[in-house]
Amino acid sequence: MSIYKEIIKNTLILFIITLCSGLLLGLTHTLTADARAEQAIKTRNAALQNVIGEADFKEYIEDEDAYQALLEKYPNVNAIYSAQVQNDILGYTFILSTKEGYGGEIQMAVGISSSGEIKGIDIIKHSETPGLGAKADKEPFKSQFKDLTAQPIIVKKSSAQRSQNEIDAIGGATITSQAVANAVNQAVDFYNSNIAGGQK
User: Fold this and answer.
1) Is this structure's pTM higher than 0.85?
2) 91 near 112, Cβ under 8 Å?
3) pLDDT digits (tens, 9 = 90+) for 66-98
4) 118 dihedral zone (left: phi>0; alpha: psi -120 to 50; beta)
């Protein structure tokens, strides 16, 4: 009988510990929610500024239904912002995510100017292999996109000469290079199909 009492006692102790741990984790999550949300906005804004410059960022489409309808056609696009300085629109910035990376999801930002040039890309988050795919977040890979015409990007294995809108793949990380280019191409397609000629 004492063995059963010991089992019940230990079970109750474990239950209380688990309950207290769960409550503490939930409380911590609630208390830090605002701080985490604020940090996420800062990270996003820093990425947007990196790809287009200092600006005020405003949601490109304010109607939620229209926004979702457009985004369904472009599954890699998470959000679109117009980049404004006073009343002038510098261009448009895109937050994208792709699961085509070698290590999993890559989240990134792309900036396209009002004149139709890719102004830059920035990798926000990735799980690519250090020394290989992780180079997507470094130079000289990122700078290859800067000032290209907003037309489809083609990834080539390293070559001495490149044609317009061709970039060199990262050595040993062609999958990562193509994943980034494909995401950029989705932003380019969105820009050309929905923004160019009717900017707002």
Assistant:
1) no
2) yes
3) 777 777 889 899 999 999 998 899 999 999 999
4) beta
